[in-house]
User: Fold this.
Amino acid sequence: MSNEVVNLKLYGNDGESTKPVQTETPEIEYTEGSYRYNALTDADVNSLNSAARPTLITLFGISECGKTTFVGSLFAILRRRPDLLKKTFLDSDTLTGFEKRVHLRLLSESGVSVQQRTRRKANSILNAVLGNERGENSHMFVFSDKSGEIYLDAVSKDNVVEEQTAVKYADRLVLFVDIEALLDDKKYMLYKKNTGTLLTRFKSKNMLPLNAEIFVAFNKIDIVERAALEAAKTLKGEIDEAKKKEFINSWKSRRKSVLNVIKEIINVPDEQVFDICSKGIQRDAEDKGLIELLSKILDKPKMKSLSSEYNWIQGLLKS
Amino acid sequence: MEQSNQCLFVGIQDTGKSSYLGAFWAIESDGQSGHALTFNGLPPNSEYLESLGSLWLQQEPVNRSPMNSHEMEICLKHRDTGSVINLAIPDFKGERFKLILQNDRPSEIDKWLKKSNKIIFFLPPLRERVFNEEYGENENQEAKMPDKDFSVDEIEPWIQIVELLKFIYEEKGDIKIAFCVSKWDELMPKGLKVEKWIEQEHLFFYTYIKYHYSNSNVKFYGVSAQGLNYENRGDLTEAKVSELTEKGKRAYISSGTDKDYDITKPLAWLLED
Assistant:
């Protein structure tokens, strides 16, 4: 099996490697650190060796929506229980990149407040080589896990949108929606508006992927029941069932509303919309939505003809 | 021409390398053990090995050695076949190997790795760090609090091990490796074969090996160099341990629940064709 270098074409539109454009937002000092198996940059991805074109999965969502938690859970499941996904985890060139995300999550678990705003500059490309349950038919999956702050910047800036080539060339795009924001009466409308504006801006700059499979993950589903109970508590500490029902209906209505905003801009089949708890990895009680979503995005893609835009076989074309 | 056997001694920090060497020196340096391998001439400077061996004999942890470690090479010979294996020890404390994970290439490790065609790789008897959500917080009490700043020390040890193995694979390909899980005396009560324990507790590491290395090039051993946990001796009083040491029945290797007191055997296996 040959190990030709494949080009996922995560360069800028002119086909050349582009340096990130300086945004107006003051950049906080961030040191990536030097690690052999760190996360990669968009440009680095072309150094990945793979026998076949990898599948690019881009995680998309404004800050605090749970992408880092999701990646940490993904890594934990791949390492310890890949059978849940009918996979084997064979290799990765970015193990330290995964560990950094695990580290952030462990800090969060232990109650240490972490300044996530420093991560704008962090390298965002991770990869995993997965086989089937018997370790055969290996395939490389590449994940783009950019900081949520970048997507927040992109709500109002075309130049930030235009840098997001991992969105444009994604094979699978996972849009994360933060349920916590939807449940917050003050934050809900702004969140809905930002979601719409963000996607509209991407569409207007032709930065939405043309042929990708699109998934929507409403994340933190575990808090809906808790929040409903809290909202329905009477002064005596009892649960007002009518109030609880009202809360749940309100949540469902907001969910539908945000999903409609998304579907106005980008086509998402209903079977690719999931309610998940990205932390839901308790043994024998794993979150069904999370496992189902992971199974779908890590499904080995069927071979399809490539768009000429991809140009991923430059080496072969030259010969 | 017979290919020379150059074995590299590998392991991150706290994986029992020094304990093994201390036991090895104490048991084998006089050439009287009758074990598979014996010294083919003593190293020109064995001061550090002597200090490790002395601590082992006195039932003291080897990390109490006041001496600084240094790279060394020891030459061993198979008693029956006469085959020779050179064991290169570039990094007693595992700190040099850590530099590899930080994208550095310490020149001594580079030098030894280029020469080596065998590896003896030491592994810690640790469970993996897991998220609280996986097992519930109460079951995860042993997890240490992460440091606020990320550093190579925050990389989970078993991920460090895979990264080190990955580096070796990228340099040397499908090379013969003897994996030795240290402090096997503490894990033996589980009643598992060493390989099974690794598969159950460290699935990704195990899968990585199975995917990248041929079966004939890999073997798993449990190693108990100290023979006991000094801080939790149970029935093994100092007198009892002294007696076991004298009888040559203290340090051992194991495939699971057995005990083989010839701790040279992982290296002897590496010598086999």
